[in-house]
Amino acid sequence: MQKGNIRVQTENIFPIIKKFLYSDHEIFLRELVSNAVDASQKMKTLSSIGEAKGELGELRIDVVIDAAAKTLTISDRGLGMTAEEVDKYINQVALSGAEEFVNKYKGQTEGNIIGKFGLGFYSAFMVSEKVEVISKSFKENSEAVKWSCDGSTEYAIETSTKENRGTDIVLHLNEESQEFLETERISSILKKFCRFLPVAVYFENEQLNNTSPAWTKKPSELKPEDYQAFYKELYPYNEPPLFWIHLNVDYPFNLTGILYFPKIKQSYEIQKDKIQLYCNQVFVTDEVKDIVPEFLMLLQGVIDSPDIPLNVSRSYLQGDPNVKKINNYITKKVADKLEEIFRNDRPSFEEKWDSLGLFVKYGMMTDDKFLEKANQFFVMEDTAGNKFYTLEEYRSAATALQKNKEGKLVILYTTNPVQQDSFVKEAQGRGYFVIKMETLVDASFINQMEMKWNDVHFTRVDAEIADNLIDKQENADCALSTEQIKQVKELFEKQDTKLHVTVDVKGLSLEAPPVVATRPEFMRRMKDMAAVSGSMGSFYANMPDEVTLTVNGNHAIYRDVILKQELIQQEKMVQSLADLALLSQGLLNGSQLTNFISRSVELMEGAGK
User: Fold this and answer.
1) Among candidate residues 416, 420, 603, the one with its CA nearest the CA of residue 513
2) Are residues 137 and 246 in the same domain?
3) Mean per-residue pLDDT for 89-105?
4) CA 428, CA 417: separation in Å to the nearest integer?
5) Same domain (yes/no): 241, 307
6) What pLDDT, on the 0 to 100 scale, is given for residue 359?
7) What residues are paired with 504 via a beta bridge?
């Protein structure tokens, strides 16, 4: 067996670091400003514990462009470095001064230290042909020092004339990186990555960051208007949020943040990637799908955690148990908040349901733990007034009337109360409870809940009459004779339509329409889902519609009007009745709709003669 130490040749690794350390070159500015923040926080810590003499002074970071010299400078007023420290921390790749400092002053640090890997400084070489570090330590009688390197493994250290404590990083930008001499470009990067850093960042004589964002404070320190103001800072053009959840936990992981429930008026307004991930107030990404449960990607706000494992670029999550723990914690906090609002202020909860319903339904479909809690506060809005039912409340109200042949509770719903108004009114007239299911997620939600709620079956109010309980009188007497039933059925079966139509004559109630068009619940549901999905959805979208025309043999229009007409007139009138029924299902269009209008005018003209 042979053992030894792996050998690293700096001549080979340094060019790789320069070129591939970060996939996005603009990250260099985030890293250098973050280092400046660490230097400032260290200085604050040493001052607070009495290890630094003299005035602390103003801790600030300045970013300065010199277009003529083609340089970009990042200056801080932190603890600075001696020549020995420059040699130790700059000349040794991947030695983290921040990590060393935290270990030395564990439990005494003022604020959070950002650095972890000791590689961030080298991002400067991705955009520079030469880098200079000019630094003066806080230590008494320290001499300023200047370090310079042209991107090779050779460097130079010499004394400098810098008078004030702190460090200046001077980047001599290469030809490919001249964009970073543009004021707007630098301003946009700083606002993206540094807008909430804990040390003031100045550019063009303007402070660009809020050093004390709301999420860094304790909930007890904030009023509702503070949360509203912070939301406005994050999303200046949005309407005020419905409510928010303040995350603040330090065991078994560290996590702070504020999650907002935005107003969503229409399903098509759903937008993801609105939650921003920070690490010690440094912006990392707005792609948080591994940390935040998928259904809560609809939320907005900020999450900040030093315990979320990131690679050196702080851009991609790595596998770690903490991520799953944080995911579960956020789910529980959201469920607890919703349950609290429902329990303490149900009218307010119901008032917000148009927006909340999307979150809740999405969560119930995708997260069984959330489903378990959501069963307590999930509500369904009745079409008769502004009444809402929980599942148990609906069950108590409807079980006596609304059971199918398998003994399951049938939840009647409408996807369009206006278009399906006649069906809704017919159901309500029989004492049934019809709820609204109008959003894009409802077709999927219904399918999922039928699998999760074993004793529940959903049926749209305009589905098959016998199955959706609108008509329980399948054996009711029909006013038409056997011969007349046959005659009426033949008239309807003559209709020219591209649909797959089945005709049935029944003795419905006198108040029921002369013809009712219904579609099989399963096929109609699949077509609804196909309208908002691809792949398998296209299979159902292209299948011909199956329609049942249920003729109400008890309606006077057949006995007293149609059957007394000539055959041609009978056919026209029956065609119009069939078209009216198809129109109620949205299945009449194009030339058929045009013919229906023309025929209706013709029939009215004939009736007036």
Assistant:
1) 420
2) no
3) 58
4) 12
5) yes
6) 85
7) 550
